[in-house]
Design brief:
The complex is a heterodimer of chains A (about 210) and B (about 100). Chain A has about 210 residues and is mostly helical. Chain A contains ten helices and no strands. Chain A is extended and about 70 Å long. In chain B, α2 runs antiparallel to α3. Chain B is elongated, with a radius of gyration of 17 Å. Chains A and B meet through α1, α2, α3, α4 and α5 of A and α1, α2 and α3 of B.
Chain lengths: ~210, ~100
């Protein structure tokens, strides 16, 4: 039973991975990656790591891929030629590189001195890979990496907002004179998105032309 | 199932991702291929974790997931900024970092 499940999910994962690089439209690449991630989560379940599988589906296939879909539909993923226009030689070289990498990794895996690689794995202990065990490890042995990871996420969020924010402010008169119900209930210059990018200031005095 | 099967699948996915990074031109797809490579590494980590009956590998995999999420947010932010500035969205055309 485990073998059948393994082959179904492994074929799904590899097909998804091939789909990511073989499809012209980036939107379909994202969808192929979602299939790949879900198959991979099932492989994780076969390896008895329940928590990572759940996190993979919820965080990766759920949240990160939604971000991708938003950006692809914003930037407008148009059909494009798959291969680079740098010539046939480069493509052949990259095929050779990928094949050589795979052969080398396979030799390293199959010819390893580790006896356990060709075993079924360690005997299963109840609770292995459960959220309780992962949580205990994260809050005891791996507390420092856990905190560093949370800081990294904070920095990445701030960096993404800084990189992708709208720099020019609100330009058209309709945008500047847009009113909402909230304008009555709160005082001026207290934190709307429009004021954040300089909309309210422009109403009073025309700001100098910003360097783009 | 032998653990070597999982490791071979992981190696194959990693190579597909590396091939995609080398050949594709759209930075969005390059980011997707980086995700493929990180996920292949995750699969290998979890296979080793199961092999030794030790949960530490799963913690590694979770941290890799966090790093991948950070990379995605910053990378997509850069792509959106490129789109705003009408820079061609093509990794072959981009030759300098200075805005």
């Amino acid at each position: 039973m485990a073998e059948v499940l393994f082959f179904i999910t492994a074929i799904g994962a590899i097909t998804g991975a091939v789909g990511v690089i073989a499809v012209r439209n980036p939107f379909y690449s994202v969808l192929a990656l979602v299939c790949h991630l879900i198959s991979l989560a099932m492989l994780f379940l076969l390896l008895r790591s329940e928590f990572v599988a759940a996190a993979q589906v919820i965080v990766y296939a759920g949240a990160v891929m939604v971000l991708y879909v938003f950006v692809v539909s914003y930037v407008g993923g148009s059909d494009e030629p798959i291969s680079a226009n740098t010539g046939r030689g480069f493509k052949l070289a990259s095929v050779a590189f990928a094949l050589a990498l795979f052969v080398e990794l396979s030799i390293a895996i199959l010819g390893t001195g580790l006896q356990a690689v060709s075993s079924q794995g360690a005997p299963y202990v109840a609770g292995f890979g459960s959220p309780a065990e992962i949580g205990k490890l994260l809050l005891t042995d791996y507390l420092l990496p856990f905190e560093v990871a949370s800081f990294l996420l904070l920095i990445a969020a701030v960096g993404a907002v800084t990189l992708a924010r709208r720099r020019g402010g609100l330009e058209t008169p309709e945008e500047l004179s847009r009113l909402s119900v909230l304008d009555i209930t709160r005082p001026k210059i207290t934190g709307t998105m429009a004021e954040g990018v300089g909309g309210a200031r422009r109403l009073e005095a025309p700001a100098p032309e910003e360097v783009v | 199932m032998d653990m070597s099967w999982f490791l071979v699948v992981s190696a194959l996915i990693f190579c597909i991702g590396a091939f995609g990074v080398l050949t594709r031109r759209n930075p969005l797809v390059v980011l997707l291929c980086l995700e493929l490579m990180l996920n292949a590494a995750n699969l290998a980590l979890i296979a080793f974790s199961r092999m030794h009956g030790n949960s530490d590998g799963q913690i590694f995999a979770i941290i890799v997931m966090v790093v991948a999420a950070c990379e995605v947010t910053v990378g997509l932010g850069v792509i959106v900024a490129m789109y705003r500035r009408r820079v061609p969205i093509d990794v072959d055309e981009l030759r300098e970092l200075q805005g």
